Amino acid sequence: MHRNASRRLLPACLAVATLLATGSVALAQSAPATSSKIKVGFMLPYTGTYAALGGAIENGFRMYVQEQGGKLGGREVEYFKVDDESDPAKAPENATKLIKRDQVDVVVGTVHSGVQMGIVKVAKENNTLLIIPNAGVDEATGPLCGSNIFRSSFSNWQPGYAMGHVLADRGLKKVVTLTWKYAAGEQSVKGFKEAFEAKGGKVVKELSLPFPNVEFQALITEVASIKPDAVFVFFAGGGAVKFVKDWQAAGLKDKIPLYASGFLTDGTLEAQGVAAQGLETTLHYADGLTNPRDKSFRLDYAKLYKLQPDVYAVQGYDAAQLLAAGANAVKGDMSRKPEVIKAMEAAKVDSPRGAFTLSKAHNPVQDFYLRKVDGRDNKVSSVAVKALADPARGCRL
Ligand code: PHB
Q1: Where is the signal peptide (predicted)?
Q2: What pLDDT shows up at residue 19?
Q3: Which of 283, 314, 331 is the last residue of a domain?
């Protein structure tokens, strides 16, 4: 038996010897998985209203990998990219390109909740590891949760819930909401409403416009006509810049208090200028945190990119940290998927936002800060809700 086995091995040994003799190209092709690179596929918006968000995520991710000498789990990291244009219709084809054509080990994407739905579907069909570095779509860590689906950001429900809690505690009663009509806006409002109404507040009107439209005027006029105690909005990126400026130009800044999830003022303050001063928002990141991890992260990011980091850069950085936890556990052999997943599930991510762990549905359990715009900063005022976990309704893992 033993002898037979070694006899059968002989031709294989000869074949290897031939390969070695015929040169390195053939050798590289037949090399065992232990020496290959980890292939990361960025599926992010590089154009459109969310372009800056995609860039910051990629910057953050690359910075972490660079800090590890360009390697995770001892293997070099190779990048592939597609611009998802924040277009849900193109999502399945774009995700399939990374998975089938480029054969990536992990997809890191994306920003837009509608596009995310397409990526989640394709990642599940192919059992490809997915790390969501922004999009909050509740389903990804709710009814569509999966062992291969992870998030380094937040669920849409979370920042909305935190603000609902804050405004109810301030005794506000009557609030109007305004957002883009797609999952991110609608689910933020849902989270807000859940916390706000549980404590006696009332959302009296829910207004919206299609993504990524920025013709806010008629809606701003409508809000003013209702005379609510406050307005709660979700906008982000380029659209958020325009909304904050339009709100001030309409003369409402000192008349109706404007509150939002922190995306309204993150990465946007330079462009918003005076129109944003004093705005209060809730988010899982803020300026003026005192943990040492944040201090070094901010210094290094500013040095490397000549830019100030924002929440999106943090989420990209932490997506890489999460991947590192998995890759380190298997010494870079990403084919050992169950072990990769187990290590990622158990990770305690040393984030600039403050350390966090993942819920059973793979969503960060994290503090939500109340912040106030002061100059170019979203200065932390307090922790609005500590260790907030998304309820993960419908997730069976
Ligand atoms: C989303 O579509 O989930 C989304 C987009 C931009 C943000 C936050 C959430 O800043």
Answers
A1: 1-28
A2: 41
A3: 283
The answer to whether position 201 is within a domain reads: yes
Residue owning tokens 């090399």: 31
What number of other Cβ atoms are within 10 A of residue 171's Cβ? 10
If asked whether residues 265 and 295 sit together in one domain, one would say no
Report the run of H or E that residue 246 belongs to, with start and end: helix 237-249
Let me know whether 149 and 295 are in one domain: yes
Q: Is 282 exposed, middle or buried (0-12, 13-18, 19+ CB in 10 A)?
A: buried
By the 8 A CB rule, do 315 and 60 touch? yes
Kindly report whether the peptide bond that precedes residue 257 is cis, defined as omega within 30 degrees of 0: no
Please give the single-letter amino acid code of residue 37. K
Task: Answer whether 147's CB lies under 8 Å from 119's CB.
Answer: no
Whether the Cβ atoms of residue 352 and residue 291 lie closer than 8 Å to each other: yes
What does the pLDDT read at residue 35?
62
Q: Which residues of the chain have pLDDT under 50?
A: 1-34
Return the H-helix or E-strand segment holding 178: strand 174-180
Q: How far apart are CA 261 and CA 19, in angstroms?
A: 59
Report yes or no on 238 lying in a domain.
yes
Q: Which residue has the tokens 């292939």?
A: 39
Same domain, 260 and 343: no
**Domain harbouring 51, CATH code:** 3.40.50.2300
Dist CA 348 CA 369 (whole Å): 20
The residues, any chain, with a CB within 8 Å of residue 266's CB and separated by 6 or more, are 236, 283, 285, 310, 311, 312, 378
> What atom in ligand 1 is closest to the CA of residue 311?
10
Q: How many domains does the chain have?
A: 2
List all residues whose CB is within 6 A of at least one atom of ligand 1: 50, 111-113, 134-137, 156, 184, 236, 263
Backbone angles phi, psi at 367, to 5 degrees: -75, 145
Q: Which atom of ligand 1 is nearest to the CA of 112?
A: 2
In a domain? residue 18: no
* Residue 96, domain member (yes or no): yes
Pairing of strands 364-374, 75-83: unpaired
Same domain, 261 and 333: no
Q: What is the pLDDT of residue 227?
A: 98
Residues 52, 103, single domain; the answer is: yes
- pLDDT at res. 18: 40
277 shares its domain with 299? no
Nearest-CA residue for ligand 1 atom 5 is 112
